[in-house]
Structure formats: C-alpha cells, structure tokens
Amino acid sequence: MNLKLRILMIMLLPAVFLSAQSPDQINKYINTYKLLAIAEMQRSGIPASIILAQGIHETHAGTSDLVIASNNHFGIKCKDNWTGPVAYHDDDARGECFRSYAAAEDSYRDHSEFLSQSPRYAFLFRINPEDYESWAYGLKKAGYATNIKYSQILIKLIQDYDLQKYSLIAMGKLPPEKIDSGALAKELNREIIEGFFDSTLQKPTLSATYPDGPFSINATKVIYVKSGVSLLSLSNQYTIPLARLIEFNELKQEDVLNNDQLIFLQRKRKIGSTAYHIVQSGETMYNICQTEGIRYENILELNRLETGEEPAPGEKIYLQSMANAKPVLRNAGSVKTGNASH
Hints:
Elements lengths: L2 H9 L1 H8 L2 H22 L3 H12 L5 H6 L15 E4 L6 E4 L4 H13 L15 H10 L8 H11 L3 H7 L10 H4 L5 H7 L18 E3 L2 E6 L5 H7 L4 H7 L12 E4 L11 E3 L6 H8 L3 H7 L7 E2 L4 E3 L10 E3 L11
C-alpha cells in the first residue's frame, strides 16, 4: 500500500466509524447509559461527554462482540493488577485478555477508577471538565488508545450528538432531562436507576446504591443508616465507643439520627480516592466529606474554605490537592445538614 493511500485511509477513519453505526443505534446507546455517565461524572469528575463518547466508540454503540460477551464498555484490558473475570478478544493481537463485568454499571465504575487511580492520567483531572477537546486529546496523549484519530473521533461524537449537555447536567448547569426509566430498566438494574434519580424531580441521589451492612468508601469502613436509628445502638452493635462514633462522623452530641446518612466506623482519611467532586444542588460540604470519606477539616483546608461556607452547585471541590482558589460560594452563611455540627 503506497503512502498516499495510507494517509487517505487514516483521514477517513472517523467517517468510516461513524457510518458503521446508525444514528438510531448511537442514540439508543446514549439514552440507555446517560444516567451512568452523569452519575460517574458526579462521583469521579470525568466528563460525562467523554464517558459516553468513549462508550459509543469502544462498543460500536453497544453492538461489539466484546461488550455483548463481557459488558466491557471501554475496551479496558486485564493488566497485571486485574483479579476479576476475563474475556478473550482479538484487538491489537489475537486473543488478548480483557476485563469482564457482571453488568454495565460495573464497567462504568471501573473505567472511572482506571483513569482516576492511574498516575499517567492524573493530569486530566486538572483540566476543566467542560473542556472536552482537551480531555479527548489528553486521553490519546496518555496512551489510552492506539488509533491516531482517537481524539477526533471522540470530539466528533460529542459534537454530533450534543453529549456536552450531559456534563452540564452533572455539574448542575443544565436541568436534567426527563428519563424513561421503564425503558432503561430493560438494559440496567432498576434499583440503580431509581437510586440515581427520584421519580419526580430527576434529582441525582446515590442512597439506593449503598449495600446493607458495612462496606468501604475511600478504604474506610462505613454503613448507611436510616433516620431514627440510635447512635448508641450502633455503638453497641459495632463495639465502638459512642464518643468515637460521634468523632469519626463529626456529629453533634445527639443520640438519634435525624436523616438517612452514612456513618463511618473508622476515622476518615485526609484525602479522597478521586481528584475532585462536582457539587450538586442542595449538597453541603458535610455531605461531600461523608460521601467521599474525607475528614471535614481537611476538605475545608484543601478548598480554602471556612466552617459554614458552602460552594455553589457545579463548583469543583478538590479531594487530593490544594485548590488554586476558593470555590464560588452559594451564600456566606452556615448551612446545617442532618446532625452535622457545621
């Protein structure tokens, strides 16, 4: 094959890809997985536009052999540290090892952790999440894909299918769309869907995704507790002194919880497991420190905030490094949430 023909084929790659999947197939993929993309952006900071564009491309809009066989939406290979199920698929070489997942939501979550926990992708989390072009070029620069047109493919998908709006929804800068959760339930676990969005306001919430009994957030043991539960009963159940339980969760000296909330059974960590958190409507710094498993005083220090200062929806809260400046505030007063002493 001569050089001119090779160059022509490379230039046509994005058009060839987009023509392989019909707009109906791509729109079906978007409508099926946009909730997961929004929720993962809120959890990890990766733009929902990028998540969806990668998912569309890597799965051929949900039709590839790999995604059908293994629920692998992002083409993530096994690597040395993968201990979960695997699937074998021809890619750059024959019979390569890829990660396999029980459900799509597991793949989406693992994709977030794959990027946020790898040093080679760390620079991406310093890019404005609205700047999808820099994210797309950054992914290629970091070696996510071998296709030299990978960045252009993602950008074209984002622009052609208006995927940027899902990033803006995740950041609270656009109102959520109405979601046909009945149709989505055919593809995703209904509890996951109902946990992400309530039935009337379509407001993000993750409460339904918490398991029963102890689990971990940011490598710290935690439980999800309904309102009306006595702290003393939890103290006795888990053999933790009541004073320590109050200290771990920065609570008032009250015995009964007024709201459903996370209760940590160990001291929270000083930094988070992901780079930052996007503030949602109605969310307080105390909510965020519990959701991310970070001590309240440390999350305030990282973001140059004083006790009682609350950031506006859509602001970026840093969880691992010092913010360059204080986030835009919702108001100058203090906001009390649940049993928090802030």
